[in-house]
Amino acid sequence: MSDSHDRQQDPYGPWGAGHFTHHHHNPYLQGGAPHVATEGFVGQARSAFLGGSGSDRFVKGMLIGAAATFLLTNEKAQQAIIKAGVNLFSQVASNVEELKEKVEDARAEAQEQRMAQED
């Protein structure tokens, strides 16, 4: 096959799934369905996160799955996560209230200045 046959222009341009889409034959799929390899920013981000060979990705996936299973089945871990979430939410709510007060103070001050200028 020629190089032009293997590469087809990506309809999404350089910001899509990749500037060129490569079609490779996957021997494990029936009918010779093409496997699309991703290039560009998305492919680089996926590669940076998953990285390495297939066995490296398997180990990372296994570790992430084990951590998720631990967090979902361990009562103490759940309580700690919920407690941290409540603390974070209360801090955010407190900061939002403080910001609202500052905005109201600034608004009142601006209105006072307008009234003073009109007199």
Strand order of the largest sheet: 1-2-3
Query: Can you write the helix and strand succession as a string?
Result: HEEEHHH
* Global structural class: mainly alpha
In percent, how helical is the residue content? 55-70%
Largest sheet: 3 strands, antiparallel
Mean pLDDT: 76
Number of domains: 2
Distance, first to last CA = 85 Å
- Please give the number of β-strands: 3
Question: Hey, roughly how much beta strand do the residues contain?
Answer: 5-15%
Figure out the total of helices: 4
Rg value: 28 Å
| Low-pLDDT sequence parts | 1-6, 32-36
Shape: elongated
Region (Disordered): 1-32
Keywords: Coiled coil
Protein name: YtxH domain-containing protein
Coiled coil: 89-116
Reconstruct the topology from this structure:
Layout: H1 3-6, E1 7-9, E2 20-25, E3 34-37, H2 40-50, H3 54-73, H4 75-118
Antiparallel strand pairs: 1-2, 2-3
Describe this structure in words.
- By secondary structure, this protein is mainly alpha-helical.
- It folds into two domains: 1-51, no CATH class; 53-119.
- It contains four helices and three strands, in the order αβββααα.
- The protein has a three-stranded antiparallel beta sheet with strand order 1-2-3.
- Strand 2 (20-25) and strand 3 form a beta hairpin.
- It starts with a helix and ends with a helix.
- Residues 1-32 are annotated as: Disordered.
